[in-house]
Design brief:
single chain, Aconitase, domain 3, seven-stranded mixed beta sheet, 18% strand
Length: 600
């Protein structure tokens, strides 16, 4: 029986043949921690008396806040620098750029290799046919210490793009079209392989754009079979001849999904939901206050070129702020050498240091209350990039909109821009407090429930990114769900022993461990959901926090009723006396009973 790409890569790094559903210890070729999460990785290693397996394969990347403009980020970066000096670990410091892009450009990752990072978009490595995975602080600490992590081999979907897009369509439009088709949880628990003539002809930058947004479909990874351009690029970057890992002709896929992109025109995601995708023409004329070009999704040189082509001999509309952030310093320098920075500055743009920018609270790209932003980023969750509203689009559409003062297509920029004032600054993060200690681990629970009948509750709704610098669990609880509409007062109502019941894809989005730890802080006993985001699920399991898979939102269960849960039997008894079967795996139980993955 043939193997898919991910089965081949994981099998090669497990030292044995693997199939979907197998649990395997995977050797990790590159182990990365960022300034977001890096300090917690260091803390986990120090508190558990663990060292570093192989410093040559271990890295820090400071891309969330290159300026260190937030004191807590600056402190976290310094903690990582000290640890790096102690263990001879290379640091890609504040002048380098986005870690996942550096991994490709510096040859840390290459086709067929494995990489883990505290970045939920580490699956961007699928662009070069490598395995990349975003993981929480505990997972990365384990990878630092032992050079490997456990992983459940996912089934694979085959995604085929059919047809020829319009000449105005970009790789961003292709992935937005896929997101519209598949939805926010369409790839939940899956690896995907992308095929079709339009995919085969994509350059590296286009593959990076598309692979990045697998996270927004809850996917493990989106893999692109490397073409000659990618192979040549990665061979030069890594200093060795690399070869593509390709699926066997008889590889077994969970299913094949065809997406019609024939004649595809520029697409845009409406605020709050990356999957809420429409034609740009349908929202053209919407007033904007700011625009952003950059992120790991659209920060490559070709993205900068596309924006510069629109902005040349134009100026950003009065009252609109355009922020541009290349993904790496090498790209920034090339933009300078080839005159793009001159165009951007001449157009009235703010050009920032290479890094993540608007996706991270500590760098340029955030917006104020009521402000409408059009962005090339990958996420527009409520509150993710500030208190305003964010549309997601391609670099040409964002550049055209910045010049127009309203959402606009590149070939329909009005002769006179529309004026609009900018919004106010985002609120600062709160201070940290001491960490709470682990408690005993019962396997039977009886408690009051809070039933939240919503799917795709993302990590920004659970625990907003403005609190990410907080590392003490004791303080995290009070911010739980304060960005989830209708549940902002949850932390005040919740009591120790309560049980949270949710729908599908709970914990979609970021790799932040705080979205698990905030429940531990409140004393919440467990969470029961129909399904969980892939990274969130790992974070909960590895932290020793019980989550159970079960569909309770479709029952008549209501908040503040009591249920009984038996983790060993995998059952939930409802107030009516009905038993509902749940899922709590053997792997979960083992990690849960020892108090977490790092409790050796």
């Amino acid at each position: 029986m043939g193997k898919t790409i991910i089965e081949k890569i994981l099998g090669a790094h497990a030292g044995r043949e693997v199939s979907p559903g197998d649990i395997a210890d995977i050797v990790i070729d590159a182990r990365v921690a960022r300034d977001f999460g890096g300090a917690n990785v260091v803390k986990n290693l120090r508190e558990n008396g663990l060292g570093v397996d192989d410093p040559a394969k271990t890295f820090f990347t400071f891309d969330c806040n290159p300026g260190g403009s937030d004191q807590k980020y600056a402190t976290n970066q310094q903690l990582c620098r000290i640890f790096a000096r102690e263990h001879d670990i290379k640091v890609y410091d504040i002048d380098a750029g986005i870690g996942t892009h550096l991994a490709i450009d510096e040859g840390l990752a290459y086709p067929g290799s494995t990489l883990v990072s505290t970045d939920s978009h580490a699956n961007i490595l699928g662009a070069i046919g490598a395995f990349g995975q975003g993981m929480g602080d505990v997972d990365i600490a384990h990878a630092f210490a032992f050079g490997r992590v456990w992983f459940k081999v996912p089934p694979t979907l085959k995604i085929v793009l059919r047809g020829t897009p319009s000449t105005n369509a970009t790789p961003k439009d292709l992935i937005l079209a896929a997101l519209k088709k598949l939805g926010a949880n369409g790839l939940l628990g899956y690896a995907a392989e992308f095929y079709g003539p339009v995919v085969e002809n994509l350059g590296l930058h286009g593959r990076v754009t598309m692979a990045s947004m697998a996270t927004e479909m809850a996917g493990i990874i989106a893999l692109f079979p490397p073409n000659d351009e990618v192979i040549d690029y990665c061979s030069k970057a890594s200093g060795k001849k690399v070869t593509a890992v390709l699926a066997d002709p008889d590889a077994v896929y969970e299913r094949t999904i065809e997406i019609d992109v024939d004649g595809l025109t520029p697409q845009i995601s409406r605020p709050g939901h990356p999957e809420d995708v429409v034609d740009v023409s349908s929202v053209a004329g919407t007033k904007i206050g700011s625009a952003f070009i950059g992120s790991c999704t659209n920060g490559r040189f070709e993205d900068m070129q596309a924006a510069a082509a629109i902005l040349k001999d134009r100026h950003v509309a009065p009252g609109v702020v355009l922020k541009i952030v290349p993904s790496t310093d090498r790209i920034w320098q090339r933009c300078l050498d080839e005159g793009l920075v001159e165009i951007f500055k001449g157009a009235g743009s703010l050009v920032g240091n290479a890094g993540c920018a608007g996706c991270a609270a500590g760098q340029i790209g955030q917006n104020g209350p009521g402000e409408v932003t059009v962005s090339t980023g990958n996420r527009n969750f409520a509150g993710k990039q500030g208190k305003g509203e964010v549309y997601l689009a391609s670099p040409p559409v964002v550049a055209a909109s910045a010049a127009a003062g309203v959402i606009a297509l590149p070939d329909a920029i009005p002769s006179k821009p529309v004026l609009f004032p900018a919004g106010e600054a985002a609120e600062p993060a709160a201070a940290a407090k001491p960490k709470a200690k682990l408690k005993e681990v019962p396997t039977k629970f009886k408690g009051r429930v809070w039933v939240i009948r919503k799917d795709n509750i993302d990590t920004d709704m659970i625990y907003h990114n403005r609190y990410l610098a907080i590392t003490d669990i004791a303080e995290m609880g009070k911010y739980t769900f304060d960005n989830l509409e209708g549940w902002e007062d949850f932390a005040k109502k919740a009591k120790a022993g309560d049980i949270v019941v949710v729908g599908k894809n709970f914990g979609a989005g970021s790799s932040r461990q705080q979205a698990v730890d905030c429940f531990k802080s409140l004393g919440v006993a467990l969470i029961i959901g129909e399904s969980f985001g892939a990274i969130y699920e790992r974070n909960a399991i590895n932290a020793g926090f019980p989550i159970m898979g079960a569909d309770l939102v479709s029952t008549d269960l209501e908040s503040e009723q009591e249920i009984e849960v038996d983790l060993e039997k995998g059952t939930v008894k409802l107030p009516s006396g009905t038993d509902v079967k749940g899922v709590f795996s053997e792997v979960q139980m083992g990690i849960y009973q020892k108090g977490g993955l790092l409790n050796v």
